[in-house]
Amino acid sequence: MMRIALADDQALVLHGLRALLESLEDLQVVISAENGDALLTALQREAVDVIVSDIRMSHRSGIEVTRALRSRGDMTPVLLLTTFDDPGLLRAAVEAGAQGFMLKDAAPEALRDALVKLKNGETLLAPMSLSSHHGVNGTGPTPRLSPREQAVLRLVAGGYSNKEIGRVLNISDGTVKNHITDILQRLDARDRTHAVLKAIGANLL
Where in the sequence is the domain holding 36, given as residue range(s)? Predict the structure, then answer.
């Protein structure tokens, strides 16, 4: 049974999402919070597998909640839900350390698949209006990343440090650093966040 924490500051949406999630196989909502502060408080008492939060809430947004969790060392996967197809929100979610980003009109099956992926250490940061059918700059061939480089970049997208990535993948900090350097070069990215956004736009994650 997958344990879920859920947060939304609109009561009808919160109850609707809870009913939807609990109707799906092997999911249990153990936290149902009406705002970001309530979610952070509840997460200090209950351990969960995945956090599902509205991106725009009173008393701390989903992005602020994610940032607060990462700052206190809590790496529980976070799926942020939004009604706005806004690349700026995606960038903010990635920078905060969220592993998932979905529109609220996603099908229930897609939502369940996203939760399974996040629980298994994958990322799902879509759909967004980014160039996804061409190269990372919208033209030219799409670059390729090795399976190990993809694994490293997924953890980067989740907000993991080099040391944490090394521990998860059982490789040294220096090897992680070398992989990230290679990734930045392949994607022509200026920094880690830029690399994640480019990889998402090129359907590499």
Answer: 2-125
